[in-house]
Design brief:
- The protein is mainly alpha-helical and 323 residues long.
- The chain has 2 domains: 211 residues, HUPs (Rossmann fold, 3-Layer(aba) Sandwich), CATH 3.40.50.620; 80 residues, Tyrosyl-Transfer RNA Synthetase.
- It is 56% helix and 7% strand.
- The strands form 2 sheets. A 3-stranded parallel sheet has the order 1-2-3. The protein has a two-stranded parallel ribbon with strand order 4-5.
- Strand 4, helix 9 and strand 5 form a beta-alpha-beta unit.
- Helix 3 crosses helix 13.
- The protein is globular, with a radius of gyration of 21 Å.
Length: 323
């Protein structure tokens, strides 16, 4: 039997090339290798997105993005997190065996706490809901960026603690990290993230993509000067789109001098637009067939619920709420 893979992405804004290379591409590449369940983490998104129409629009947008990128609903169970209310139930059981100091160590909570005077309970409890997402599906592997590895550690810790208290219930998931694309750099050199405002939108207009590419931060070296490609934010993104001889030739031009950053950005823009063209065409199809997208999500939700029915009964039995 194939191992079970689970992962998801929040519908909290525009999908960018960091999301694609850091996550979605892996989902597509793995869909023949694993029994895959991919969800839209709409419950997680409510920690920041608290507008009805925005959230609904984002959910459909992410679903179309997934499908346009090549996820095949015949091979992958694609569903909304909120269609599995048992996840929230399981998160409550986990909350009751989890201490606050343990959650205070979470990187996401620390980062949010530095930016805001008060953090909502949902964001504080984020690792526990994510643990429930993973463990309720009996996931063997979870593709994540290297900065998300801590969430898998939280899921493993939670599974171990629950098993010790209530008896053997959960397997321990393993992270799958593609090191070469674990963290995709944004236009400012930091990790590409909507919260940093440094993204290149995957399905943006040509103008939006060009504007983002042209904003990539560089040093002040002139075109004639030799440059270290490994220290260049533009070259770091070239490596996502160029391979083999093409990449080596570009690297040589950097080192030899004579390549300006403007020319390098123009090249990157062309690479991105060419790369996403077939995905754009796929997305245009789904934009015209929204009912099909909704149907795919509904069927995926029903399949996901069926997958966890027996597991949920075991959990309730072990906790003691089933009489």
């Amino acid at each position: 039997m194939k191992k079970r893979l689970l992962s998801g992405i929040q519908p909290s804004g525009t999908i960018h090339i960091g999301n694609y290379f850091g996550a979605i591409k892996q989902f597509v590449d793995f869909q023949d290798q694993y029994d895959s369940s991919i969800f839209i983490a709409d419950l997680h998104a409510i920690t920041t997105v608290q507008n009805k129409s925005t959230l609904s629009s984002n959910i459909l947008s992410v679903a179309m993005d997934y499908l346009a990128c090549g996820l095949d609903p015949k091979k992958v169970c694609l569903f909304k997190q909120s269609d599995i209310p048992e996840v929230a139930e399981l998160a409550w059981y986990f909350n009751c065996i989890t201490t606050m100091p343990y959650l205070e160590r979470a990187t996401a909570y620390k980062d949010a706490g530095m930016k805001a005077k008060e953090v909502n309970v949902g964001l504080f409890d984020y690792p526990i809901l994510m643990s429930a997402d993973i463990l309720i599906q009996d996931a063997d592997v979870v593709p994540v960026g290297s900065d998300q590895k801590q969430h898998i550690e939280y899921a493993r810790d939670t599974a171990i603690k629950f098993n010790n208290i209530y008896g053997e219930t959960f397997k321990l998931p393993e992270p799958v990290i593609m090191k070469e694309v674990a963290i995709v750099p944004g236009t400012d050199g930091r990790k590409m993230s909507k919260s940093y405002g440094n993204i290149i939108p995957l399905f943006g207009t040509d103008e939006q993509i060009r504007k983002a590419v042209m904003s990539i931060v560089t040093d002040s070296k002139s075109p004639s000067e030799p440059k270290n490609p490994e220290e260049c934010n533009i070259f770091a993104l070239h490596k996502l789109f160029l391979k083999g001889e093409e990449l080596e030739n570009l690297k040589k031009r950097y080192k030899d001098g004579g390549l300006g950053y403007k020319e390098s950005k123009d090249m990157l823009y062309e690479e991105i637009v060419s790369f996403i063209k077939p995905m754009r065409e796929n997305r245009e199809y789904y934009e015209k067939n929204i009912d099909e997208v909704k149907s795919i999500l509904k069927e995926g939700g029903e399949k996901a619920k069926n997958n966890i029915n027996a597991k949920m009964q075991l959990i309730r039995n072990n906790v003691g709420v089933n009489l």
